[in-house]
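Final report, closing paragraph on structural work. Over the funding period we assembled a curated collection of sequence-structure pairs, and we close with a single example.
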Amino acid sequence: MSDFQPARQLEVVRRLQQGDECRVGVLAQNTKGVFFQYDAAYIGAYHSLSPFQVPFDTRLHPAPVSPHHGIHGLFADSLPDGWGLMLMDRVFRQHGVAPQQVTAMDRLAYIGDRGMGALRFRPLSPYVHQQGEHWVDIGRLGEEARQLFEGQTETVLGALAEAGSSGGARPKAQLYFASASSTQASTHPQEGLSPWLVKFTSSSLVLGHEEGLCEAAYLSMAASAGIVVPEWRLLTPPAAAAAWLATKRFDCATEDGQGRYHLHSACGLLDADFRLPSLDYEDLIKAGQVLCGSPRVGQALFRRGIFNLLAVNQDDHSKNWAFLMDDAGQWSLAPFYDVTFSPSPFGEHATAYCGHGKRPPIRVVQRLAEQAGFARWSQARRVIEEVLEGVQQWARVSGELGVSRETRQLIQTSLDDTHEYAKTLLAH
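Its predicted structure, as stored:
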């Protein structure tokens, strides 16, 4: 039997851009739920971390029961989902703790200082692996991740538990590299190493071991369409995978990853359930404009929404939209991430277009363009043309990256279909 006791209180700490820290406040839970309180000193010196849902004062703020498992969206953004939760649950089981006993506060304690963004949680969970030098062979780590993801093993090794706490459903790891060609990486930040997120592949994924190649192609297409994307590179694995995609961490403000920007997803910011179609591009554009205080943010979100529409990236849920805040309190739109070919069973997008889950009519796109801050439809139409030009790079880019002919044709068929739809938007 485990002597497990749920976490009752956690100190919330924020890492600033140069790597120094400041105390934000305290999280506490009892039988009535989870509560958060800002420190008066933080309020006097810094800025609100979640301006839409958590009042910026020293009162005690209860967390909503849903959609973040009983904690505030501000802190839920530090937790993984899918892959990371599976790893965490396996670790708890290995220590004799049933996942049903574990609260969201316990999970924050397990994340500690290993989450995306600027927030840290103390004290650290006693179940966190802290032994060893933290150096790993990337090929071996990817193979362990594949075996675990495909159900060939149930044992989570220490290095994978350390590195695998990021979000998303696919197997991935937060790693620190010395160079682009290195086969060794650290699971902890160290001087001279830069922070990257590596996505491993599996035959169980929709696009199998070509997932990394396809996402790389989509990032190239998005960049050519005028969209800001993370720096990326492809790693050559030792086994069956064609390539693993690595993207540089955009939440890190210093080269070694110690300095951080505060990261907040639309899911956490708006208390939107990413598991359900709970977000609309109209609301996303409004939120971005208000948060960042810039009309350009609305236009950038419109461009990304059109890209998702024409590139068949229908898994555009609320966790795949994020904003960054610097030490001065200025918010900006995070780079475009988790973008790839992802059709849904009924062709419906997770984020709707003014209530339309697919192929919004021209009047709806014009309404979104107006909300995004375009003075004339001709300006928005030019954006659509640029996005279409970027999407049409699929054949060339995917061929250059080595995507198989079968996968290239599969995706090209869907893109040809959306090309015909795009013509209806450009005809006006």
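Residues 9-122 form one domain. Residues 221 and 390 are 5 Å apart (CA to CA). We thank the funder for supporting this effort.
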